[in-house]
Amino acid sequence: MDSKQKILIKFGERVREIRKEKGLSQEELAHIADLHRTYIGMIERAEKNITLINIEKIANALEVKINNLIN
Amino acid sequence: MDSKQKILIKFGERVREIRKEKGLSQEELAHIADLHRTYIGMIERAEKNITLINIEKIANALEVKINNLIN
DNA sequence: TGAATGCTAACTATAGTCTGTTGTTTAAGA
DNA sequence: TCTTAAACAACAGACTATAGTTAGCATTCA
Question: According to CATH, what is the number of the domain B6-66?
Fold first, then answer.
């Protein structure tokens, strides 16, 4: 995942935005979503091309629709 | 990817539905989306956990919003 | 300082590619 | 009808690329 793709950047920004709105740390979000601390960081920095199942996990953890993270 | 996840099943069904509406074969869709023939089949059968970049490729190829494929 | 995040590197699990074969429609011709 | 062929999709297996895990240390910032 070099040369970061626009859609991953948008997604990461949105996750970070909502996470902060909720007053969660990356570690707390990771715990709720059952993912690893550093992985959340990588997603927010658009360093990984996230899969649909993990998109859903994060949306659930943030209590938003997937729509809200992508469009 | 055994024990297929609901969200992947929904996604696959939706891709197949729209693909057929457009009168495209899996091979034609694959070509437009720049993905492999058999991979489109696997996605429609919910056998693979698709990544965000490929979700976007398929949405573009089908000329729909990602929303349309997920929610 | 301490809590949160960034970053690296090494690892393992699996996404995604590719070739080939089998099975299933569908349509045309006798 | 009944075949036959051609187009399409399912499936298997072997492979390569990369998603996702984890630990440890560096950096940032309140």
Answer: 1.10.260.40
